[in-house]
From TrEMBL:
This is Oxidoreductase. CDD domains: MDR_like_2. Keywords: Cytoplasm, NADP, RNA-binding. GO terms for cellular component: cytoplasm. The lineage of its organism: Bacteria, Bacillati, Actinomycetota, Actinomycetes, Kitasatosporales. It is found in: Cytoplasm. Its main location: cytoplasm. SMART domains: PKS_ER. InterPro entries: ADH-like_N, ER, GroES-like_sf, NAD(P)-bd_dom_sf, Quin_OxRdtase/zeta-crystal_CS, Zinc-ADH_QOR/CCCR. Residues 10-295 form the Enoyl reductase (ER) domain. Homotetramer.
Length: 297
């Protein structure tokens, strides 16, 4: 089978499309014929060799955590899923024609494989950081870097829970944020004062790693009210860095519920082929994403 792999840490040029042995479903796992794989910032962070304790790497290594596809092997002890089911979920080395998933759910009706591949890690991360930052209904949450996949999910989930959201993003994405129910502003000069004019900030999330931790602490008044998923230096300022996933099965179940009720929709900004994996990483790292980027297999 074909898969994306890298034999050394580095830039996107280290990604190679190679022939590899097919993986197989071990007990408690399923294998899917991958139709689409989500492109997440953690993918290129791992490829660059950033120190992420939750994702130890042995080289050569595959790439990708999220995928959607058709079940073609069911491991021992797995119940409730059959060969031929359309599922989405999280596993390992998902930039490939076949991948083994450790957590999955049936795809909601009406969702394409490309759309479904963009949800698993994104929704888990969004649910986790909302929980960790401790924001409650009736309070206001500031989301820095709000237009990407995690930001899109955070805005919608928070609004569903009765939380007011303020989102920062580039000028081109202001209407997009407003469409998700956020009070929106750009992150260029003067953004802190513009946020203050929008309201009192009770908690804040750093989703882009754009060097705004000090300002987020200033706006909330307490480093314990700020969580980052993108700035490895956040703990030096007393801010929690969140990088270890919670329950992916629970997150997938909540995603299915929200999607099925029309309360969560994350658009696919751009799709790439496997041969374009390096371009997908380059674009993801550049930011300014509106929704998700995915690979079509």
């Amino acid at each position: 089978m074909r898969k994306i792999s890298f034999a050394e840490f580095g830039g996107p040029e280290v990604l190679q499309l190679v022939e590899a042995e097919e993986p197989h479903a071990s007990p408690g796992r399923i294998r899917i014929a991958v139709r689409a794989a989500g492109v997440n910032p953690v993918d290129w962070r791992i490829r660059e060799g950033q120190v992420l304790g939750a994702h130890p790497v042995e080289l050569p290594a595959g790439v990708g955590l999220d995928a959607a596809g058709v079940v073609d092997e069911v491991g021992e002890g797995v119940k409730g899923v059959e060969v031929g089911d359309r599922v989405f979920g999280e596993g390992a080395d998902t930039y490939a024609e076949f991948a083994v998933l450790s957590a999955w759910a049936r795809m909601p009706e009406g969702l394409t494989f490309e759309e479904a591949a963009g949800y698993p890690s994104v929704v888990e991360t969004a649910l986790r950081v909302i929980r960790e930052v401790g924001v409650r209904p009736g309070q206001t949450l500031l989301v820095s870097g709000a237009s990407g996949g995690v930001g899109s999910a955070v805005l919608q989930i928070a609004r569903e829970r009765g939380i007011t959201v303020i989102g920062t993003a580039g000028a081109a994405n202001q209407d997009y944020l407003r469409g998700l129910g956020a009070l929106a502003t750009t992150y260029d000069e003067g953004w802190v004062e513009r946020v203050r004019h929008l309201g009192q900030v009770d908690a804040a999330l750093d989703l882009a790693g754009s060097g705004v931790i000090r300002e987020l602490v200033e706006l909330t008044g307490d480093p314990r009210k700020v969580v980052s998923i993108a700035d490895l230096g956040a703990p030096q300022l007393g801010v929690r860095f969140s990088g270890v996933a919670g329950s992916v099965p629970d997150a997938l179940a909540e995603a299915v519920d929200l999607i099925s009720r029309g309360r969560l929709h994350i658009p696919v900004e751009k799709s790439y082929s496997l041969t374009e994996a390096a371009a997908a990483h380059t674009d993801s790292r550049a930011g300014h994403t509106r929704g998700r980027r995915v690979l079509v297999v």
